[in-house]
Automatic annotation (TrEMBL):
Gene3D superfamilies: Dihydrofolate Reductase, subunit A (3.40.430.10). InterPro entries: DHFR-like_dom_sf, RibDG_C, Riboflavin_Biosynth_HTPR. This is Dihydrofolate reductase. One of its GO terms (molecular function) is 5-amino-6-(5-phosphoribosylamino)uracil reductase activity. It holds the Pfam family RibD_C. It comes from Limnovirga soli. One of its GO terms (biological process) is riboflavin biosynthetic process. Residues 3-182 form the Bacterial bifunctional deaminase-reductase C-terminal domain. It comes from the Bacteria.
Length: 206
C-alpha cells in the first residue's frame, strides 16, 4: 500500500529555501548550502544521467532507496516553474502532478516522466498519484507550501529530513504554521553524516 512521504533538506534553523525564489534563483540560492551532502554522492548524479560525485557511501543509499520506493510525485507550481527551464529530460522517471490554477495539457517527456497539471486541489492530485504509483509511495516533492498543505490535511505517513549544519537566518521554513494537534510523531531513524544529519519520522493521526 502506498505511503505519502516527503524527503527534504533543511538548514539547522529550519529553512527549506532562501528568499526571492524564482526561475532565475531556484531555492533562493541556498541549494548548495542545504544539499551539499547530496551533491557529493554519485547516486544523485546517476539519477540525472551524469557521472559525477566524489562519494558512494551510506548517504548514497538514502538517495537510491528514496528513488526506488517512489512511484509518483506531487509538487507545487513554484517548484515546477523553477525547474522547468533547467531540469534534464526525464528527471523524475515517473508521473508528476503539479498543483496549479493554470490549465495546461500534460507535458510528456521522452522516457517515463509525464507532468500533469492539477487544478482541483491536493486530494485530487493525491488520488491520481496513487493510481500512477501502483503500490509504490507518493512523494510530496515541494516546495515548502505544498508539503505544509499535505501535513495540515493529515495526509502524510512518513518523512525524512536532512539537516545541514548551517544557519540561514532567513527564508522559507519547512514547518511554518503546522498544527501540533494533527499527528503523533515517532522517530524511526537517526543517521549522522559529515555534511548532514538524516532523520526519519513516522506520523499517525491523533
Amino acid at each position: 500500500m502506498s505511503k505519502i512521504i516527503f524527503d527534504s533538506g533543511i538548514s539547522l534553523d529550519g529553512f527549506f529555501a532562501g528568499d526571492n525564489r524564482g526561475p532565475n534563483n531556484p531555492m533562493g540560492g541556498v541549494s548548495g548550502q542545504i544539499h551539499a551532502w547530496m551533491f557529493q554522492q554519485k547516486a544523485f548524479w546517476e539519477h540525472l544521467g551524469m557521472e559525477a560525485g566524489q562519494e558512494d557511501g551510506p548517504d548514497g543509499k538514502f538517495i537510491r532507496a528514496t528513488i526506488e520506493r517512489t512511484g509518483a510525485y506531487i509538487m507545487g507550481k513554484r517548484m515546477f516553474e523553477e525547474g522547468e527551464a533547467s531540469w534534464p529530460n526525464d528527471l523524475y522517471k515517473a508521473d508528476v502532478y503539479v498543483l496549479t490554477h493554470e490549465e495546461r495539457e500534460p507535458w510528456v517527456q521522452e522516457g517515463t516522466t509525464t507532468f500533469y497539471f492539477i487544478n482541483d486541489g491536493i486530494e485530487s492530485a493525491l488520488n491520481k498519484a496513487k493510481q500512477s504509483a501502483k503500490g509504490k509511495d507518493i512523494r510530496i516533492q515541494g516546495g515548502a507550501n505544498t508539503i505544509q498543505q499535505y501535513l495540515q490535511a493529515g495526509l502524510v505517513d512518513e518523512f525524512f529530513i536532512h539537516i545541514a549544519p548551517v544557519f540561514l537566518g532567513t527564508g522559507i521554513r519547512l514547518f511554518e504554521g503546522i498544527d501540533n494537534n494533527t499527528y503523533h510523531i515517532a522517530i524511526e531513524e537517526v543517521v549522522p553524516s559529515t555534511l548532514t544529519t538524516h532523520l526519519r519520522y513516522r506520523l499517525t493521526r491523533k
